[in-house]
Known about the structure:
This protein is mostly helical. The protein has 2 domains: 234 residues, HUPs (Rossmann fold, 3-Layer(aba) Sandwich), CATH 3.40.50.620; 93 residues, Orthogonal Bundle (Tyrosyl-Transfer RNA Synthetase), CATH 1.10.240.10. It is built from 17 helices and 5 strands. It has a 3-stranded parallel beta sheet. It has a two-stranded parallel ribbon with strand order 4-5. Strand 1, helix 1 and strand 2 form a beta-alpha-beta unit. Helix 4 packs parallel to helix 16. The chain is elongated, with a radius of gyration of 23 Å. The chain binds adenosine-5'-triphosphate (ATP) and magnesium ion.
Amino acid sequence: MKDIILxxxxxxxxxxxxxxxxxxxxxxxxxxxxxFDQMYIMIADSQALTDNFDNPKKIxxxxxxxxxxxxxxxxxxxxxxxxxxxQVKELAELSFYFLNLVTLSRLERNPTVKxxxxxxxxxxxxxxxxxxxxxxxxxxxxxxxxxxVPVGEDQEPMLEQAREIARSFNNIYGQTxxxxxxxxxxxxxxxxxxxxxxxxxMSKSLNNAIYLADxxxxxxxxxxxMYTDPNHVNIEDxxxxxxxxxxxxxxxxxxxxxxxxxxxxxxxxxxxxxxxSNGGVGDVKVKKFLIKVLEEELAPIRERRxxxxxxxxxxxxxxxxxxxxxxxxxxxxxxxxKKAMGIDYFDDDNLKKLIQEKxx
Length: 360
Ligand code: ATP
Ligand code: MG
């Protein structure tokens, strides 16, 4: 079996630290290890329209922002095929056939969708397109025969549905699709990075994100505004590390050698946590350290972005060419699908013969 990797992001805004640790880092790692046959990254504009249909300008504007973010974290278009979802018509076609293979109640049970419906205030009138986006997401993955999908934890229910759809299609129409699996990052926090407001998930839609393209000043401001321990008022007070987002972020990003360089009075994160819990360490000190740690991660990304921004025509061409290649793959697969379903009427000489025999 071939190893085909596919992931995507909704162009509803620039990409943030949640994307970075939840998915982008894994994609770059896999890309550079090179142990795969094909890697795709899809900008999911059609999916983004399911809850932003009244604001297509937002999607259109963010297309280029998202690809700039990809390139700036190290996605290499020579190794990875980047494309735009809406321009591959076969995805819409496949989604339409897949809709027959799921029930409404199954869709309503999807825990991520349930959550997002609540978040968006759709409880009383769910746009049908939004409710069925997991079906179109299954099409995204299956049209490209992807078996490996590096994503954050919120995507697991989507992968589950994609596998069910693949299984169901194969049972009815014959073996056509592979069952894809999610590859989650190591570590609980990276799988679902919380927002700077302390809410469960950093998300573009929740306005609680640190963006990869944020400048140093914005980064500082956001970290300084971060939720900590509300009972830790004076420096001497014992502080709570559990649920303290500043420490949650340090868990993901801080490296031992950064203590030596920026905070030499503590040996490592455990040591800092001990002192913080016992009292005597102020929030500002910890936040200033986090700023330095994040700045080390983000400065090179920002720099690469600036270079690509100077060559924006080239970036646009990458998107166009990647999309053309994806269209070719999509066309070939949909032919296979229609053949399996027996709806390839005009490519099927057998059918023509049968009709002739019946009526001539
Ligand atoms: P939106 O609010 O528009 O849904 P989002 O911030 O949830 O945006 P998506 O484009 O839906 O981002 O997600 C793209 C990928 O990034 C998915 O694989 C998702 O699992 C991952 N991801 C997004 N947010 C986080 C997060 N906070 N922690 C870990 N992974 C995340
Ligand atoms: Mg999302």
